[in-house]
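quick one: zinc ion bound model?
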Amino acid sequence: MKCSVCSSEITENYCSKCGQYYKDQRINFINFLGVLFDSIFSLEKSFFQNIKIGLSRPKTLTLNYWKGFRKFYYSPGKFFTIASLFLVLHYSIANDFLGIIIISNVSSQFIVLLTNIVLLTFSSFLLYKQFKKNVFEHLVLNIYNVSLWIIVFFPISLILSLVINNRKIEQYFYIPYHIMVIIWNSKAFELTKLKRILFVVINLLIVYGTLFLAYTLFETLNK
Ligand SMILES: [Zn+2]
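yep, here:
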């Protein structure tokens, strides 16, 4: 069989030149269902498998992407899209995420997502400078981990909104959220146990120091 994209001869299920998948079969009822749920039962690992790998083997997704491998695990972009969908769903049920409301009528949930990614990328880039990863590689690392933990904290935040409904208390859950993202970021680097703890603490101080400064500045300007 010749590849429909690049005309190379296909010997197995994948074209060795362009990577297109090929299976010699007509569309029938069973695989038509697969077409409809393509994003869940696709050739890539499923959503739940990606989450499971992201949680149980923290550096796997990022390192694989850093090394240039694609289309087996979800890309950072796919994680980001899924996390965004979870936030949209969250805001349609309760208008905050972990007690943070942003008064804006244009996709306020994205501000939470983007602020976290930018702030954490900036801090991990500074902190792990000795590992010589550029800012875009850090961006990939942080998109993976910020999105992964948004998905994990989605049910927690939802339960908090419905049960406690106290934004002040809910906001404290941002601390474990940030701690998890920061620990997961550190796993992408080879560190001794003691050094890892030190790096995680410094990373937390950078993030909360920056947030505190931004908050103080905002308050002063608004007086
Ligand atoms: Zn091809």
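The chain has nine helices and no strands.
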